[in-house]
Amino acid sequence: MPSINSLLSSLLIAFTFFTTLTFSATLLPNNEVEALEEIAKTLGKTDWNFSADPCGGEWGWATKNPVKGSENAVTCSCTNNTVCHVVSIVLKTQNLPGSLPPELVKLPYLQEIDFTRNYLNGSIPPEWGTMQLVNISLIGNQLTGSIPKELGNISTLANLTVEFNQLSGVLPQELGNLPSIERILLTSNNFTGELPQTFAGLTTLKDFRVGDNQFTGKIPNFIQNWTKLEKLVIQGSGFSGPIPSGIALLTKITDLRISDLNGTEATFPPLSDMRDLKTLILRSCNIVDPLPDYLGEMTKLKTLDLSFNKLTGEIPSSFVGLSNADYMYFTGNMLTGAVPDWMLKRGDNYDLSYNNFTSESSRGCQERSVNLFGSSSGGNNSGIVSCLRSFNCPKKFYSMHINCGGKEVIVDGNTTYEDDTDSGGPSKFYQSRTNWAFSSTGHFMDDDRPTDSFIGTNVSRLIMENSGLYTTARLSALSLTYYGFCLENGNYTVKLHFAEITFTDDKTYSSLGRRLFDVYVQDKLVLKDFNIEDEAGGVSKEILKYFTAVVTNNTLEIRFYWAGKGTTGIPVRGVYGPLISAISVDPDFIPPTENGSSSISVGVVVGIVAGVILLVFLLIGILWWRDCLRRKDTLEQELKGLDLQTGLFTLRQIKAATNNFDAANKIGEGGFGSVYKGVLSDGTIIAVKQLSSKSKQGNREFVNEIGMISALQHPHLVKLYGCCIEGNQLLLIYEYMENNSLARALFGLFFFTSAYVLYSIASAIKLHVYELV
Ligand SMILES: *[C@@H]1O[C@H](CO)[C@@H](O)[C@H](O)[C@H]1NC(C)=O
Ligand SMILES: *[C@@H]1O[C@H](CO)[C@@H](O)[C@H](O)[C@H]1NC(C)=O
Ligand SMILES: *[C@@H]1O[C@H](CO)[C@@H](O)[C@H](O)[C@H]1NC(C)=O
Ligand SMILES: *[C@@H]1O[C@H](CO)[C@@H](O)[C@H](O)[C@H]1NC(C)=O
Ligand SMILES: *[C@@H]1O[C@H](CO)[C@@H](O)[C@H](O)[C@H]1NC(C)=O
Ligand SMILES: *[C@@H]1O[C@H](CO)[C@@H](O)[C@H](O)[C@H]1NC(C)=O
Ligand SMILES: *[C@@H]1O[C@H](CO)[C@@H](O)[C@H](O)[C@H]1NC(C)=O
Ligand SMILES: *[C@@H]1O[C@H](CO)[C@@H](O)[C@H](O)[C@H]1NC(C)=O
Ligand SMILES: *[C@@H]1O[C@H](CO)[C@@H](O)[C@H](O)[C@H]1NC(C)=O
Ligand SMILES: *[C@@H]1O[C@H](CO)[C@@H](O)[C@H](O)[C@H]1NC(C)=O
Ligand SMILES: *[C@@H]1O[C@H](CO)[C@@H](O)[C@H](O)[C@H]1NC(C)=O
Ligand SMILES: *[C@@H]1O[C@H](CO)[C@@H](O)[C@H](O)[C@H]1NC(C)=O
């Protein structure tokens, strides 16, 4: 074997020699060409064409037909048209499978390497310490090991970017000697320990990011030396608070992000001289203070996130100066007073949810893009629900099933996961038509997308069981709360359905993403640094998590929170945060039935079935009998006699809803007449049953039907919204359900066990019979 290898390599060298001679237009010295060959081998780079001039911009050596984010360039610097040297190697988004080449040292003029988003493993070679590198970018690989202390010798080094890898260990104190360093980006690695004291000397720093690591200790006060700093990101880094007061001296800062500090309660850090701030994030930093007035003078602010602290007092009047901000998050504080008018008027993604603001009772949970959910006071947190439109619960609920981010699906043939396809948003409250709502806070930072999507779609082609639940999922950039209300008090089992659908499972950089987030049930942390992919053992795999929730005030809260952990730039920038596929909540107790009994015997079942059969005959009998009757004009009087829980609609309303009974809206035709789909002016989708004048359905039955169905409130039955009687027209207005839902509803019914349900069955069959007549 060695002989073949050596033969091959001598052939290779001979070939190289030959080609270098042949293309003597190549002004690159031989040793640099050879070095490139070795580098290619170590990196796993196969498309460098050594028959062509590496400095000539030929295919393989330069970016041709660039795909977004992908770059492929070897750049040379030539003097006097006689000799060239490689100064830069940029290989981005190529899934290179090798490791970092120590052979770079053989390119003595090399200033820049950029291996962003590949699949390189191994560690950073200490040999690089002898080079004159200016830019080192290794973003988004699978590098391990620590940063070699030798890098501290690269006096030219300006940019050291190693984000989204698995580097570990303590930062070498030698890095504190770098005289030209501008940027140190260490986000999303596994670094430990404290920042070396020598870092006090990094006075040339402009950009320092250390989020998502395992650092310990406090944020050192010596950062005050970094007076040129423009950007500082310390999110989910492991450091504890408080934020050192020396930060006040960093007056050039435009982008300051500190979040999820472990530590004691702290005052608001002194930022009054940071007049150029565009982005200010102090999230979950345990700040107990009123909002400082001077923030209102930071008129360049575009994003202000002070969520999840313990801020008190009112929003200062000076804050009107922030009306150019695109996003403001005050979520989860203890702010009081009235919500300023200018905020409600401008209404641009200002999230005020979960505070203690007073609000007019007329106001809903959301006004324009201002999320006010849980914002109004009234003591004992009852404000959280007082903004809900249907605060007066129509009935008690004993469960809730949501297909988060997806359409309604039925699982196991008996559980309906409700539709949850509202697009969500950075400051959004959404209330379902049943007993749940969600409150969504936060936008995805630094992504290049013009608008964020808060619903993720499965990128994998793997087939999953219950795929209906996992095709799409709801995403959050900061905090997402699902809120159940009108629940009967008691213990419930909360089942959370997760599957990682964003990352791939191949040998590409897209598989290197890490998603970590926290989950709270009833304000209790139940999952910390939860990683779906790790827990499920891969992507596109279901993982279910069960919790017991004690409901004492008819409400249930499930909160998903991004604590600054995980990668934020794989496969593209702005991919991070919680992802939830579906939620089931089922009672740990047997829901009581309408008449108080909670279980029934076989005898009762038999009785019910017999009763149903009897009723069917009775109804058919009635139908026959009804044929003999004529419609009378006393209809309206009869209707008045009923204690209807439904509304009367005008013919004009129904004509508007169905586009004057447009044939295009017709969704069915029975013996009695036609069924139309329509949309009421408030957006409610309805089905209109038009009883033709030829119909044999008589007045009395019409009245009966309305009375009977309107009294019913059962999740499996089509709801009657009301009726319309004008002139010759008899119209029934129902809740609109998708195809076959009625049949399904009828089928599911036999599993229910109460006299109330018996009543439902009877009326449903009656309905059905009407369809057949
Ligand atoms: C390599 O470069 C040579 C010289 O430019 C060219 O003739 C040849 O077609 C190239 N090979 C490939 C695979 O592109
Ligand atoms: C380049 O040419 C200039 C004069 O034309 C000469 O002074 C210089 O030494 C040359 N540099 C090299 C590296 O050959
Ligand atoms: C370093 O990277 C920056 C940004 O990509 C670039 O503008 C600069 O020219 C690079 N410096 C060198 C010496 O290659
Ligand atoms: C890097 O990956 C290659 C190929 O998968 C493997 O053979 C090698 O052991 C890995 N090296 C390290 C240091 O993990
Ligand atoms: C370092 O990177 C930044 C940002 O890409 C760039 O603007 C700057 O020019 C780089 N520094 C040097 C010395 O190349
Ligand atoms: C990070 O380091 C800790 C020990 O310091 C280790 O237990 C953990 O597995 C590492 N995490 C990763 C993702 O490498
Ligand atoms: C930086 O900070 C340290 C400790 O806080 C201090 O002793 C030193 O004088 C400061 N200045 C420089 C230029 O290092
Ligand atoms: C936060 O601090 C507490 C006590 O100070 C400690 O027990 C806990 O481990 C810390 N958590 C982290 C993530 O450092
Ligand atoms: C909320 O405001 C009400 C009335 O203004 C007050 O009684 C209550 O203590 C406040 N709650 C909190 C948590 O600040
Ligand atoms: C209901 O009770 C839970 C704890 O059982 C609490 O976290 C929540 O804030 C309460 N909600 C309301 C609206 O009172
Ligand atoms: C729904 O069906 C599944 C399997 O078909 C069964 O295990 C489960 O008990 C059923 N649930 C109810 C509430 O009937
Ligand atoms: C409800 O759950 C709590 C906590 O798990 C438990 O202490 C309590 O006994 C349960 N109550 C009932 C009625 O099961």
Low-confidence stretches: 11-24, 376-384, 595-602, 628-634, 640-645, 740-747, 749-773
Q: Numbering strands along the chain, what is their spatial order in the largest sheet?
A: 1-2-3-4-5-7-9-11-12-13-14-15-16-18-17
Per CATH, what is the topology of the domain at 393-587? Jelly Rolls
What summary fits the major beta sheet? 15 strands, mixed
Mean pLDDT: 83
Q: In total, how many beta strands?
A: 39
Shape: globular
CATH classification, class level of the domain at 393-587: Mainly Beta
Classification by helices and strands: alpha/beta
State the CATH superfamily name of the domain at 393-587.
Galactose-binding lectin
Distance from first to last alpha carbon: 88 Å
- Treating each run of at least 4 consecutive H or I residues as one helix, how many helices? 12
- If classified by CATH, what would the architecture of the domain at 393-587 be? Sandwich
Molecular structure report:
This is non-specific serine/threonine protein kinase. Pfam families: LRR_8, Malectin, PK_Tyr_Ser-Thr. Its main location: membrane. It is a single-pass type I membrane protein. Helices cover 17% and strands 24% of the residues. It is an alpha/beta fold. Among the domains are: 393-587, Galactose-binding lectin (Jelly Rolls, Sandwich), CATH 2.60.120.430; 646-765, Phosphorylase Kinase, domain 1. The chain has a 15-stranded mixed β-sheet, with no helix packed on it. α7 packs parallel to α12 (755-772). Mean pLDDT is 83; it is low at 11-24, 376-384, 595-602, 628-634, 640-645, 740-747 and 749-773. Bound molecules: 2-acetamido-2-deoxy-beta-D-glucopyranose (NAG) (12 copies).
